[in-house]
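Researcher: We're teaching a course module on how sequence relates to structure. For the next exercise, students receive a sequence and then see the predicted structure as tokens, so they can try to spot secondary structure elements on their own. Here is the exercise chain.
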Amino acid sequence: MATIQFYANVKPETGNTSTSSNLIDHAAGSGIGFYGNGFNTSVAVGGNQTQTYVTNANGTNQGVRLNNTALASQGSASLNGTCSINGGTAIDLQAMPNMYCPLNLRFTHTSAVKTQNCKLFIFDRVNKNNAASGVTTDLYESRHPSNVEGTTLALTHRPATAGHFWNKFTTSSAGTSIDLTASPGSGGLNTDSADTNDTAKTWTSSAGATHTTTQHDWYVALSSSPDSIGSKTSYGLFFQLEYLE
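Model: And here is the predicted structure for the students to work with:
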């Protein structure tokens, strides 16, 4: 049996695997909400969120507070973007550990499988090919299982088209998606044969896209900016993939 689940990425001081107690039950209307300087506080139009929480579908029930990953600089294919963690000094996205990301996507299967064509959409909670309403979102997939910051500690196994920059979704981004890593492994600990220094980087396998296991984990930084005043509830994240034994 195959399952995709969303986890609040609440990290222990050591280690990198979220536990079942951090499950975001999206089927029951649970999700992640973005706020200003405190729960239920507005974000300025055109600004980025200051705090991030698990909440309900309308953003009115306060759950666990998560790490806040706010865009500091966009970056590009030739220049790494940067991120402010919980209001701190901006760091290079390539240097950002998985543990800083607020969201852990998890795929599980009763058999060991590999995953491919892993795609992430920002949508209106009706159809994945519709853009979210009234909000701009930036996403970045972290591939950095070590809890130590550093650009040299990022894994080499990631999508061919993915640099270390923010991927932007606007109200004009209907039907678009970003690629996430194929077969990242349990805890995101699978890399490819080009990688080195498993002790410092903490990877445990180097099979690349052919890696099979019963669990695969992705870690995503999220930055959200309203285009207009008011709550944004026509706003969600959709994840899809293919799997093969």
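Model: If you want an answer key for the exercise: The CA atoms of residues 38 and 51 lie 6 Å apart. The chain has a mean pLDDT of 94.
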